[in-house]
Write the structure tokens for this entry.
Amino acid sequence: MSDLSNNKPPVWFWIVAVVALFWNGMGVLAYLGQAFLTDEIIAELPVEQQAELLVEYPTWYTTAFALAVFCGALGCLALLIRKKWATILFVVSLIAATVQHVYLFMTVEGMSLIMPIMIIVVGLALIWFARMSTSKGWIK
């Protein structure tokens, strides 16, 4: 009947992929914002934010942060060009984000759980979405 390789994704596939790219784009901006903060910019912030930004994180933590946001964004681009390697990128992104947030839970007192849980749930949803899209032949 219909060849899976010629399956066109529905409109909602494109909407989800673009919204996911926007979500991961915000993560990339957060990473870049943190990576390129200067002492002068930090000095202009409120004292409680200054203390938060002056914390020295281990190199592996920064690497996990970078992997999480850049693999997530690349995974979304892979969805948009209909490549199934989006799934692998989302898996790497989720593992890195989980490592990053477990470290924060263990080291930062009074940390809000809302955003980290949301990040992990969205990561799981993107893996499911990419796998489902592959099984339907929308990405190959």
Summary: DSSP finds six helices and no strands in the chain. The chain has one domain: 10-135. Residues 10-135 form one domain. Residues 11-35 form the longest helix (25 residues).
